[in-house]
Amino acid sequence: MLTIYTYPKGPRAGKAAITAKYAGVEYQVAPWEHGVTNQTPEFKAKFSTGMVPAMDTPDGPLQESNALARYVASLRPALHLRGTTIYDQALVEQWIDYSTSHIETPLNQWAAMYAGFVPYNKNEVKKQKEMAMKGLKHLDKHLETRTFIVSERVTIADIIAACNLWFGFAKVVVPAMRGELVNVTRWYTTMLNQPAFIEWFGEPVLCEKQPQPPRPAKQEKKKKEGKPAKAAEAPKPKPAKKAKHPLDCMPPSTLDLEEWKRFYSNTDETKAVAMPWFYERFETAGWSLFRCDYKDNEDFKVEFMAANLMGGMIQRCEAVRKWAFANLVLLKPADCPHFVGTGVFLFRGTDVPEDMKNGVDYESWDWKRLDVADAADKAFLEDVWAWEGDFGGLMPAGSEACEGKTLK
Ligand SMILES: N[C@@H](CCC(=O)N[C@@H](CS)C(=O)NCC(=O)O)C(=O)O
User: Fold this and answer.
1) Residue 108 Cβ < 6 Å to ligand 1
2) Atom 10 of ligand 1 has which residue's CA nearest to it?
3) Pairwise CA distance, residues 92 & 85, whole Å
4) pLDDT for 142-178, tens place per residue?
5) For a tag on the chain, would you pick the N or C end, based on fewer CB atoms within 10 A?
6) Three-state DSSP state, 329
7) What is the pTM of this model?
8) With DSSP H G I counted as helix, E B as strand and the rest as coil, what are the percentages for the chain, rounded to 5?
9) Which of 5, 7, 52, 107 best tests ligand 1's pocket when mutated (most atoms within 8 Å of CB)?
């Protein structure tokens, strides 16, 4: 049995633990008190750097997170988690090195300054951020035409790189930056939603708003003897409280969006089970439904490019995610030379939110209000959210969408 030494959910330890899940290798996590356990003479005798993660293996002690993941993957060679061909194996190593040196290192430095792990320094933030974004953009370009980093299946290049991104994407990579990293974000959220990742990290966490530098600890001012006391300064006016978003001021509704998102995600039977649940709670004073149709479908000639564009739109919906749920589907009608993109959004409020209207994608789609009391509208809504049906006559009955993207 492998024993991993780490603090809970350590992203670096995740490299070995998640690889173990993929490989079907058993492991346990040792009880841990960071800064104490790793300073004991017994620990240091085995693991000379005194750092975590570290791992006990039947072959001996092992350190360095990437080495731990490589070791675990090698225990099940038939699964090819380190790559199939010699060339693929080299590419796996190439991306492990790249994502560790050019992404993890600057990204963690940058995030650590906001987490208060290292002293905050404005110039240093700028420098590390620039380096991290450069590395991330390079990976983004690579992922433009790929689902996973090296081959059509997950390798430890994906597992390690995703763990390398974890701290930064939770702490400092805000939605606007993710908008510049559409392919990385798509791949990263795919990885984070895999059961092995959820088991280690829990539900995916993405940084939603600009973090603030930690406040410097208040220093006791030394009183100088003999100096007259300074006249009391007038109290500074308190900064105005940030106004609440209008959609957060709406009266409570029978439909709870987060509950719906969970129910939808955990229910395989969308039409038979999820939709009746939804209709029971949906009410038009608090919510609205809009169909959207892509305006330039003639550009949708290549499936993955169309799917990327739709995935990008979902990513860029970060600003409204708190008040919206949606599915976009890509269809391929038989007599049509291109794909067709359509979708249905649920919005808090009675209209498309301003944040959505101000977004870059809004103008690329035609928007039409849907009425659940209308049988055709209702059927369209159900087909789009189930990714299956005749989609308002665009497809023969019972057709499946080529691709579906969910905003949740
Ligand atoms: N390159 C090492 C870095 C390990 C590392 O920096 N570990 C940190 C925690 S994530 C640590 O144990 N630092 C020592 C300490 O904080 O006592 C790896 O990938 O495993």
Assistant:
1) no
2) 52
3) 10
4) 999 999 999 999 999 999 999 999 999 999 999 999 9
5) N
6) strand
7) 0.58
8) 50, 15, 40
9) 52
Which residue, among 158, 138, 139, 161, has the nearest Cα to 148 in the 3D structure?
A: 158
Return d(Cα 12, Cα 167) in angstroms, integer: 10
Q: Which of 281, 278, 282, 305 is nearest to 294 (CA)?
A: 305
Average pLDDT, the chain: 91
Cα 19 to chain centroid, rounded: 19
Domains contained in the chain, CATH given = 2-78 (3.40.30.10), 81-201 (1.20.1050.10), 249-407 (3.30.70.1010)
Write the pLDDT tens digit of every residue in 327-336: 999 999 998 9
Ligand 1 centroid to residue 54 C-alpha, Å: 9
Asked whether 80 and 113 are in contact (CB, 8 A), the reply is no
Name the burial class of residue 75, with classes exposed (0-12), middle (13-18) and buried (19+) by CB atoms within 10 angstroms of its CB: middle
Q: How far is the CA of 53 from the centre of ligand 1 (A)?
A: 7
Instruction: For residue 140, give the 3-state DSSP assignment.
Output: helix
Q: Among 12, 40, 51, which residue has the most ligand 1 atoms within 8 Å of its CB, making it the best to mutate? A: 51
